[in-house]
Amino acid sequence: MSTLPPPASEPPENDAPGVPGFRTWRGVYAFVFGAFVVLVILLTIFSRLTR
Amino acid sequence: MNLLDWVVLLGTMVGIAAYGTWRTRHTDNLNTYLKGSKSTGWLTIGISVAATQASAITFLSIPGQGFESGMGFIQNYFGLPLALIIVCAVFLPIYRRLGVYTAYEYLGQRFDGKTRLLGASLFLLQRGVQSGVTIYAPAIILSTVLGWRLDLTIVFIGILVVAYTVTGGSAAVNLTQKWQMGVIFGGMVTAFVVLVTKLPDNALQIAGAMGKTEAVDFSFSPDRRYTFWSGLLGGLFLSLSYFGTDQSQVQRYIGGGSLREGRLGLMFNALLKIPMQFFILLLGVLLFVFYQFQPNTPVFFNRVEWERHASGANGASFRALEEKHTALHQLKQEKIKSWTTVRETADVAGEQRARAEMNAAQRSVEAVRKEAKDALKAADPRAKIKDSDYVFINFILTELPNGVIGLLIAVMFAAALGSKAGELNALGTTSTIDLWRHFRPLAAQDEHRNVRNAKWFTAIWGAFAIAFALFAGFSENLIEAINIIASIFYGVLLGIFVVAFFVKHVRGTAVFWGALAAQLLIFALRFLKDSFAVLDFSYLWYNVIGCAACVLFSILLQSVLGSGRSSATRTPAV
Question: Hey, are the CB atoms on B97 and A10 less than 8 Å from each other?
Fold first, then answer.
């Protein structure tokens, strides 16, 4: 019978995003939030232009 | 459908399922079975998250939503990117640090066993109820239009997904979802391109003038169904509950090689979801324009249901409605042509007048469509009168070439299988980890027995979903039905996690009873909404109210119980 290892927390992980141009996750989140704002603006423009 | 369509459909669907089963047939390690391969990268996680969320209903109903109501539904997704940022920053690091298999295991560590069981039970209850809907929804539509037997379609989808999900667990789900999403993207892009080639140059302007392109509504009016604010706030809570506390999503991103892979997978979805939904809704809006110029646009898009009555005893009244619709449709075409002609000139007053006449003609057509639905309902009270789900499939079957028809039917099946697999995988995992292992802690130490039980639970949930889809009667508006069921439970579930993460002094007993009281409140709001007009608000608000009530009740109860009446906090909150 193989047994399960005792429940243990995982060791701390490397927290760097590893995405070119971003040194921290805060930067990634800010980029995603900025993209969302741009999308809302584009959707608003789309609504106005096609009205 | 001809032989080529069948080859494409069965080749892709059975091929992907067989490949997933074969590649993961030796999965006997619990961690791999429940969380997927350790080498899973961010793109696979991201695709898996998207495939679990995007069911067949997404690709059948949402174009219909665009056709009927325009682009406004996109606002429902405005809370999603913000929710995913919160999940990435708060939820995911804790799940990974604790090495849990399910989100509810965390509740056990933070609070106590009964709160963990409550969280797991709320999930199993709502997801179990939904599991029948996610098979039934595509099956009823596809079987109706293709003339297949509904029961066989349900059983075929069910057995296919159970086979590879039971065999390979999360590893098989991740692997197959990647290929299924490939089929979905390929098929949807093909349909979009074919549709665009059949449209007039000013299609978007026509759609806009007829009120279909209003994507963002910043008004605060409570009688507007979709607004920027309800989408942002209600959508934020719905998405936070779904991505942060629903095991079918949590299971997709807690695996993988590192925390980074999970986070990037979620951020990929935060960027992808709104543009993806935009194009699916736009497809529906363009279908609306396409059908303005077709001479034989049906008065009712579920033609099988319509013909069943039109060829019956009261057929004459149904044919009269068809003729009335055809006449008004032709009149509307003329009004649209007049508007496009006047629009080219500098005659602003003329353009306004032509636009008003065009929209009046559209309202007349809508009135006949409503008459047709009323006639169907009068002829048969059980008749399915919502036909917007049939608009896209109608286009696929009548306007696309053979081969592409098979591909698009495969899109529906791929979406059904992908979301169903994620769901079954999560139901099996939660049943094993939070119920079986909780009640049989000693037997749970045997890894092979854990895997065996996880497979059994997955198969049992699969059989339950198939049986439920076969024997239950479902609401017609399926995507809404799913969202309503989710919203009834999600708010409270999220409230438990919000207390766990952010309200450090509240303990197990207080949050347990606070959550139960909040759930009762939501049930009461739902069931009393027809009796009291003030309670008749959008179901999205149940997420906000359920979460807020759970947090508030828990804090109040904790202040009543004091610090010594409850089990101790086991791990610190953040």
Answer: yes
Confidence grade of residue B456 (pLDDT, cut at 50, 70, 90): very high
Q: Please report residues of B whose CB lies closer than 8 A to that of A36.
A: 78, 81-82, 270, 274
- pLDDT for B569 equals 46
pLDDT tens-place string over residues A16-41: 888 888 989 999 999 999 999 999 99
- Compute the count of residue pairs across chains A and B with CB atoms less than 8 Å apart: 96
Under 8 Å between Cβ of B306 and B266: no
Same domain, B200 and B97: yes
The position carrying tokens 């359920």 is B546
Q: Residue B84 belongs to what domain range?
A: 3-291+395-561
CB contact under 8 A, B278 and A43: yes
When pLDDT is cut at 50, 70 and 90, the band that residue B573 belongs to is very low
Is the domain of B260 the same as that of B328? no
Length of chain A: 51
CB < 8 Å to A13, chain B: 96, 258-260
As separate numbers, helices (DSSP H) first and strands (DSSP E) second, chain B gives: 23, 0
Question: In chain B, whose CA is at the least distance from the CA of A51?
Answer: B208
Would the pTM of this model clear 0.80, i.e. be above it? yes
B420 — contact with chain A (CB < 8 Å)? Answer: no
Here the ipTM equals 0.85
β-bridge partners, A19: A22
CATH code for the domain of B259: 1.20.1730.10
DSSP label of A13: -
Q: Does residue B453 share a domain with residue B540?
A: yes
